[in-house]
Amino acid sequence: MNKITFFSRFESDILNGKKTITIRDKSESYFKPTQILDVFTNETDRLFAKIQVISVTPISFDQLSEQHAQQENMTLEQLKGVIKEIYPTENQFFVIEFKLINEPI
Ligand SMILES: CC(=O)Nc1ccn([C@@H]2O[C@H](CO)[C@@H](O)[C@H]2O)c(=O)n1
């Protein structure tokens, strides 16, 4: 499926290029490099961007670093808090790196 959703509070960071990764669990680890995805808000299922997948890399919670936080436009504390909120019991994740596709939608 060429679709991914984000919580709408991250929409502006994605559109202005400040957020260039997302960290997902196994259920969303099937994306492939070069794949182009339609990006929708989680809350209202509104299309707001297209992104191209650069890489999908396994990572454990403990391996999350300041670099990942920077790519999320957050502090590491904030990032870990957000991930614990979304995935309270998960320890294994995938870093999905992406770039914004600049075309009108
Ligand atoms: C169903 C659905 O929409 N799920 C998710 C899951 C994650 N994320 C964001 O990815 C980063 C790392 O998890 C953080 O910035 C999260 O907030 C999101 O926006 N939406």
From TrEMBL:
The keyword rRNA-binding does not apply. One of its GO terms (molecular function) is hydrolase activity, acting on carbon-nitrogen (but not peptide) bonds, in linear amidines. It catalyses: N(4)-acetylcytidine + H2O = cytidine + acetate + H(+); N(4)-acetylcytosine + H2O = cytosine + acetate + H(+); N(4)-acetyl-2'-deoxycytidine + H2O = 2'-deoxycytidine + acetate + H(+). Keywords: Hydrolase. Coiled coil: none annotated. The keyword Hydrolase applies. GO terms for cellular component: cytosol. Residues 4-102 form the ASCH domain. Pfam families: ASCH (PF04266). The active site is at K19 (proton acceptor), T22 (nucleophile), E72 (proton donor). Its EC number is 3.5.1.135. HAMAP family: ac4C_amidohydr. Catalyzes the hydrolysis of N(4)-acetylcytidine (ac4C). Belongs to the N(4)-acetylcytidine amidohydrolase family. This is N(4)-acetylcytidine amidohydrolase. It comes from Otariodibacter oris. The lineage of its organism: Bacteria, Pseudomonadati, Pseudomonadota, Gammaproteobacteria, Pasteurellales.
